[in-house]
Design a protein that fits this description.
alpha/beta; six-stranded mixed β-sheet; 6 helices
Length: 207
């Protein structure tokens, strides 16, 4: 895929779609589209007080969760790093991005949900490229979208280890696994032993 095409498309569509705070499609370098076998997918970029790299199709500095960042954002970054350690992924080499690329301080369903369509073609291509084998979805909106794009079927549902909330594993006929997780910005699952125990089962990890 052509990075410049997506850079232009997102730039041209920002104001037209009612946004003015920038965008980011990939939270990692564009090159990982050719090598990554796992995807960490969030709903959309939140506010960024640093003001850096605000309008980019991809973060060419490296993984956005690992670059120097405001302390208020560190919990999400820590959860991402712990997830990678748990599943044996190099955090710099996992593909990471946003289902809806326009930045918002708060998700507003009526305004923002229709704009998931902006990058639907991009994510459909990524999910069908044959390289991605595992998708870690932040929240139900992302999970539902990925399940629809991949045709994955529910394979397992477990209590998350957080009250009555649940997490799910879906599988495609080709064996791609889609994990529906609680959003780490609100639920710090990897810092809670009860959740980690459930995640190990969900991810089919031995030991």
């Amino acid at each position: 895929m052509d990075r410049e095409h997506w850079q232009r498309l997102l730039t041209d569509g920002e104001a037209m779609r009612g946004y003015d705070d920038g965008f980011k499609l990939l939270f990692c370098p564009w090159r990982l589209l050719q090598s990554a076998d796992a995807l960490f997918l969030s709903l959309n970029p939140g506010s960024d007080p640093s003001g850096e790299f605000m309008r980019v199709a991809s973060d060419e500095r490296g993984n956005s969760y690992l670059v120097k960042r405001d302390a208020r954002h560190s919990p999400m970054a820590e959860q991402y790093k712990r997830l990678c350690a748990l599943v044996g992924q190099d955090p710099e080499e996992m593909l990471a991005g946003a289902l809806m690329p326009y930045r918002t301080a708060k998700w507003r369903q009526r305004r923002d949900a229709p704009n998931i369509a902006v990058a639907a073609e991009f994510w459909q291509s990524v999910l069908s490229n044959g390289r991605i084998r595992s998708v870690y979805c932040m929240g139900k909106d992302v999970e539902k979208a990925v399940v629809k794009m991949t045709g994955a079927r529910l394979d397992c549902e477990l209590r998350a280890g957080w009250g009555e909330l649940k997490v799910r594993r879906h599988k495609t006929v080709e064996g791609v696994r889609v994990f529906g997780l609680l959003h780490f910005s609100t639920f710090k699952m990897l810092s809670r032993p009860a959740c980690v125990e459930q995640l190990r089962e969900l991810f089919e990890l031995e030991g």
